[in-house]
Specification:
395 residues; alpha/beta; Rossmann fold; 4-stranded parallel β-sheet; 9% strand; globular; iron; repeat
Length: 395
């Protein structure tokens, strides 16, 4: 924990109404400035106790406070450092260690995730029973999505028409195995807009899930492998379609290695292909690691607004996290459920037929919450919506 970063906080309280856990509980120690006070105590010699660790664990790392802060406090760096320190200093109870071992031995590894695919439907049915064994097991099962047929992507997708750019594309871990249609749509959109898309084999997790949860050594190892993979493929610009992944990859200390979100890249490139009408009312969900961590809000809205017939609706309380937050909805299922229900009510209030999301965790979280509320809704990634419009097919 950097004492100099801690000093930047003047405890003004602008962060309070943007913090999901403070909104839920109204507890000072579960607000950004409260957690910064605990960090200061630790730098002055106070050991991290289980109670103190609980307040840090309860943080979603959504970075809404970073957007709201008038003093420029780098809470994103502080909570990342703090989580790594918690993992080093705190001995968790055996059941918690077992769950964390399961999650970080499974989710960052696409091949292991693939083994789960045939059993996801059964897992959803068994969620209440698994929750009795451990709430995190029940949460994982309840979030399991419907996975379409796996789509194999070639190593190179050629540009349609004149080539305007050459980019690499991250396939990811959860995105690759649970939402393969999103990666396929991303590659098609980039190709239709004049890009050669390089999709290197041997990709895995970028390290985002690990770094967000304080698993420092694993995060560094996965990040280094990701950089090597794309450099070996000969690309220096990597397009990412998952908000959490893009947020972490932009923090890589790798000169000449540029990471851009899909919507950010397409906005920079400018449109070349014709947009066909999509007659649908859609609500756009701001993923926290896109809006707050990367500052990308305008670009996806502009891309969607350019589609004829698409009626874009804003979600109330857009800045409040849906409760997904990487592995948060697994490790903090009760708080995540409350935030998911709150987000579901906001989405339902728009009356939209379709929800557009740019992060796989958000997609699973909000879809599950909407179904729980008896208001199921179609959820599509920004790439899927653009793909349907560019190809002139039904969404």
């Amino acid at each position: 924990m950097d004492p100099e970063l801690i000093k930047d906080c003047v405890h003004c309280g602008f962060c309070l109404p943007t913090c999901p856990t403070y909104v839920l509980w109204g507890e000072e120690m579960d607000s950004p400035r409260g957690r910064i006070h605990l960090m200061k105590q630790h730098t002055e010699g106070t050991p991290i106790t289980p109670v103190m660790a609980g307040h840090f664990d309860a943080c979603l790392g959504c970075m809404a406070c970073v957007t709201a802060c008038p003093s420029g406090v780098r809470y994103d760096l502080l909570i990342e450092q703090t989580r790594a320190e918690v993992e080093r200093a705190v001995v968790r109870d055996p059941r918690e260690r077992a769950i964390r071992g399961l999650v970080f031995g499974l989710f960052p590894y696409p091949r292991r995730l693939r083994l789960l695919r045939p059993g996801l439907r059964t897992a959803r049915r068994l969620a209440p029973f698994l929750a009795r064994a451990h709430p995190s097991l029940g949460a994982m099962a309840a979030l399991a999505p419907e996975v379409p047929v796996r789509q194999r992507l070639p190593r190179l997708v050629r540009a349609r028409g004149p080539r305007r750019a050459v980019v690499g594309m991250l396939t990811g871990c959860v995105q690759r195995e649970f939402f393969p249609q999103v990666n396929a749509a991303t590659a098609r959109v980039l190709a239709l807009e004049g890009c050669d898309v390089v999709i290197p084999p041997g990709q895995g997790c970028c390290g985002a899930l690990s770094v967000h949860a304080g698993q420092e050594a694993q995060a560094r190892r996965l990040a280094a492998r990701t950089i090597r993979t794309f450099r070996k493929a000969g690309v220096d610009t990597v397009v990412v379609n998952a908000a959490g992944c893009g947020s972490s990859m932009k923090e890589y200390e790798a000169p000449g290695f540029r990471v851009v979100d899909l919507s950010e890249f397409l906005a920079e490139l400018g449109p070349a292909a014709e947009r066909h009408p999509l007659e649908v009312s859609a609500a756009y969900h701001d993923a926290c690691h896109l809006a707050h961590a990367q500052g990308i809000r305008r670009q996806p809205r502009e891309l969607l607004a350019a589609i004829p017939g698409l009626r874009l609706k804003e979600v109330p309380e857009a800045a409040i996290c849906c409760g997904s937050a990487g592995t948060y909805n697994v490790f903090q299922p009760e708080a995540a459920r409350d935030l998911g229900d709150r987000k579901a009510a906001s989405v339902a209030a728009t009356g939209a037929e379709l929800l557009i999301s740019a992060n796989p965790g958000c997609t699973m979280q909000i879809a599950a919450a909407m179904a729980r509320a008896g208001r199921p809704i179609r959820v599509a990634h920004t790439a899927e919506v653009l793909d349907a419009s560019l190809r002139g097919v039904r969404l």
